[in-house]
UniProtKB/TrEMBL annotation:
SUPFAM superfamilies: PP2C-like (SSF81606)
MF terms in GO: protein serine/threonine phosphatase activity
Spans through the membrane: 26-46, 58-86, 98-117
UniProt KW keywords: Hydrolase, Membrane, Transmembrane, Transmembrane helix
Record domain PPM-type phosphatase: where: 152-381
Regions annotated as coiled coil: none
Pfam families for this protein: SpoIIE
EC number of the protein: 3.1.3.16
Protein name, as recorded: PP2C family protein-serine/threonine phosphatase
Database matches in PANTHER family: STAGE II SPORULATION PROTEIN E, STAGE II SPORULATION PROTEIN E-RELATED
Species per Swiss-Prot/TrEMBL record: Streptomyces tabacisoli
Top-level class of the enzyme under EC nomenclature: hydrolase
InterPro entries: Bact_Sigma-Reg, PPM-type-like_dom_sf, PPM-type_phosphatase-like_dom
């Protein structure tokens, strides 16, 4: 996976576009045409004079159509016709009929090539539309993160096990709120589309509850409800792959103006803390039951407050890190490896550099392609105090009876909207009209 110097280089993998640049098309057409022409002329020189191979030039547009556009195929057809006529002038065929048959064959080949190229471009356009929709959907689920959220400097890495995927069973996000910054990182049981659907449900619940709720326990409860609701939906829909889903997770809350972090551990790997002095330790964050297990009567885990001062760094990760195996089947020892990686870092290295070294070290340890989704998040508290979020106090809420006015672009449309509103709600027509005016 490519890396860059930015601390946010690790946003989820972008699905590669399937389109080919025009310059690449022309190069492909030129290469195929040259190879084909040379082969046909060489075959003509090696065969008897009565065996007219130059008519095979009609196959060149068909070969080119597989790789290039309709326009390129048409241009190649014209070039092949011109080449055939030139060869006829240089070395006329014994039978005059070939002067007509040859161009006819090349024209037929060109027509077939154009049809093939057009069909291929239509299919490619449909595929690209599906890819664009899938990419937009994945970006809505796992959105890109900024470098800074409040006084937190962050960097994230995500590598789904599925190729060309952007999301998977691992999920994480940051949510600024009037109550401070909240963060979450979790791992849904199972794989494939059901795990993605469960992740989307949890992320949606986190973004809403993380913004509106002041109490971390209430955010945890909302996540538990979201997991249970998804499991109930999966059972109704007959999704046998994930009928009783659960998710481990770490829920973090960075209260404003406090050098601390509150962590709720839903059966997840505890984070690692890198102090401002470079020392690495594992905090005491007792694991509770995973999300989705509350229906069994288990109590939700309680928040644990830890000191988190400027210069301190949190490293969060999923089991795609701890269960990564080498050639001998040995798991990646992230807790033992991290101190050495930190020691070799410059003092002013951003979180993205630490993350880059962890990801590269993990990649060097791994045997073969990843078998599980991998997510890593590095969070560093900076010295400056930055407001994490500005609550929109001037938001205007429109009631349904007033919504028609939003579409009025001139006086006539405004009057039409008023008339329609009077029919729908006569008792409010007077006050609504005054509000619009």
């Amino acid at each position: 996976m490519p890396f860059s110097g930015s601390s946010s280089f690790t946003s989820p993998t972008r699905v590669a576009r399937t389109t080919v640049r025009p310059t690449a098309r022309w190069r492909a057409a030129l290469l195929v045409s040259l190879v084909s022409v040379v082969s046909i002329i060489s075959l003509g020189l090696a065969t008897p004079a009565d065996f007219r191979t130059r008519a095979l030039l009609g196959l060149v547009p068909i070969a080119v159509a597989v790789l290039t556009s309709v326009m390129t195929t048409a241009v190649v057809t014209g070039v092949m016709l011109a080449l055939y006529i030139a060869l006829q002038l240089i070395d006329p065929t014994p039978s005059g009929g070939w002067a007509v048959v040859g161009p006819l064959l090349i024209g037929t080949g060109g027509l077939l090539g154009v049809l093939i190229a057009r069909r291929r471009e239509e299919q490619q356009a449909r595929i690209q539309a599906v890819v664009d929709i899938a990419e937009a959907t994945q970006r809505a689920v796992m959105r890109a993160l900024p470098d800074h959220v409040g006084d937190l400097h962050i960097a994230d890495f995500y590598q789904p096990a599925a190729r060309a995927a952007r999301v998977g069973g691992d999920w994480y996000d940051f949510q600024p709120s009037p109550h401070g910054v909240r963060a979450v990182l979790g791992d849904v049981s199972g794989k494939g589309l059901p795990a993605v659907s469960a992740s989307a449900s949890l992320l949606g619940a986190f973004r809403e509850a993380g913004y509106h709720e002041a109490d971390e326990r209430e955010v945890a409860r909302r996540l538990e409800i979201a997991m249970q609701r998804y499991s109930a939906w999966a059972r109704v829909m007959g999704e046998e792959e994930l009928p009783d889903a659960f998710s481990t997770a770490l829920l973090l809350h960075f209260p404003p103006g406090v050098d601390a972090v509150d962590i709720v551990n839903f059966g997840h790997e505890p984070p690692l803390v890198v102090g401002a002095d470079g020392r690495v330790h594992t905090p005491d964050v007792p694991p509770g039951v995973p999300l989705g297990m509350g229906a069994l009567g288990a109590e939700l885990p309680e928040p644990v407050r830890l000191p988190f001062r400027p210069g301190d760094t949190l490293v969060l990760f999923t089991d795609g890190v701890t269960e990564c195996r080498d050639d001998d089947g040995v798991f990646y020892p992230v807790r033992e490896r991290l101190p050495g990686l930190v020691e070799r870092l410059p003092a002013d290295a951003p979180p993205g550099e630490l993350l880059r070294r962890i990801a590269l070290d993990l990649h060097g340890h791994r045997h073969g392609p990843p078998s599980d989704d991998t997510a890593i998040t590095v969070i560093r508290r900076t010295a400056g105090r930055v407001a994490p979020y500005v609550t929109p106090s001037d938001a205007v809420l429109y009631e349904p009876a007033d919504s028609a006015a939003l579409y009025a672009e001139d006086a006539e449309e405004s009057q039409y909207a008023t008339d329609m509103r009077e029919r729908a709600c006569p008792s409010r027509s007077t006050s609504s009209t005054k509000a619009i005016a």
